[in-house]
Amino acid sequence: MRLFQLLLVGGALLETARGRPQAASSPATVVVTLSAPFSSKSVVLTLKSTVTDQGEIIPPGATYFSPTTTITLATTATTGTLTEGFNQTTTSTVTGSSSGGNTSGNTSGSTSGSSSSASSATTSSVATPIPTPTQPCNGYLEFCERQYSNITEVCAHNSPFNIRGNLFSNQELGVTAQLNDGIRMLQGQVHFQDDTLHFCHTKCDFIDAGPISDYLSNVTKWLQANPNEVVTILMGNSDNQPPTSFQEHIKKAGLEPFAYVPPKIPMGLNDWPTLSSMISSGHGLHPSDLGKRAVIFLDYGADQGSVPYILDQFSQLWETPFSPTNRSFPCEPDRPPGLKSEQAAARMYMANHNLNVEVKVDKLDVLLPAVAELMFMNGADGQGSLGEMQNTCLGKRFNFFLLLFCL
């Protein structure tokens, strides 16, 4: 029982193996007593759900975009290159001007820099104990001249779900702390709840992180405070909502001025810009517009013709098997299905490195995060480690590593 409790700690129950449930004709009820991850008390968890032939991973009616031609879009984007004159000081130089109380500085010990394509503004800031980037371009100066598609970034799996004491949480820290710690890709499931879009895992009855605009507002604030960073956001369209609904929340959160609009559809591996050009490419749409530094993907239902900055995931970014139960972590493409090797080689890809355990509870198959294996999963070496997967998969580096409990 103790092992079972460990497996459930911090868990996010999926109602099926690999996100694809088996058909069932009536609701299944599960009652489990277990300990919460941040409390010594036991709680009783009652799950009532109908297992259907489609899980939240692939929403009903979802399709994959399979382009036969490349569409080149007109753009007024500017490009530029960050200079290498970065000094370890208590000031920060940004790629645009500050306005309305938005400062351009980072905390003490941060790196100052400038862009050759925009004016700079400098402000002093008071030292704080929280981590902040000390070099531009996602923590490494050499990344400034690398293409966005030629960098490996860590992704927080189900980033919004960090509610203390909730058994469905997948992260320990909130999104601001995640970004301060170096996470540069944020992923989360979105459901239609109370006539709007919420970040929820599997069902909003299990865990509800609130409207997605609330979460995205924190991302906007972080981008404003860190003008030399590029962040990727991947949202799961679990209820197959139109992209315009996501657009409304992105606008409300103030994130739209930061959203990257690609010059073509789809973007091939070698089509992506360098980080420095993204950082220095402001269009002047908003006083706080300090570069097109938010790359936003939607797994299903994107329409770049209607919302150009909400990018279709699978025509540009494939991924390994979702919620794997195999500690060897298979490397082959899982979504989109049927992807040919030459197609995979021409796109970015994401490794799902969140080990799960399949458990049958009262005739209901569920996948539980293997929390007891976290030290191995998130380690640098050993079977099932991040290091092993990075060094052995497909002979090429991942673009994104998707992890549980990024600490």
From TrEMBL:
Pfam families: PI-PLC_X (PF26146). Residues 1-19 form the signal peptide. Residues 83-97, 104-128 have a biased composition (Low complexity). The keyword Cytoplasm does not apply. Keywords: Signal. Residues 83-131 are annotated as: Disordered. InterPro entries: PI-PLC_domain, PLC-like_Pdiesterase_TIM-brl. GO terms for molecular function: phosphoric diester hydrolase activity. One of its GO terms (biological process) is lipid metabolic process. PANTHER family: PLC-LIKE PHOSPHODIESTERASE (PTHR13593:SF140), PTHR13593. This is PLC-like phosphodiesterase. It comes from Trichoglossum hirsutum.
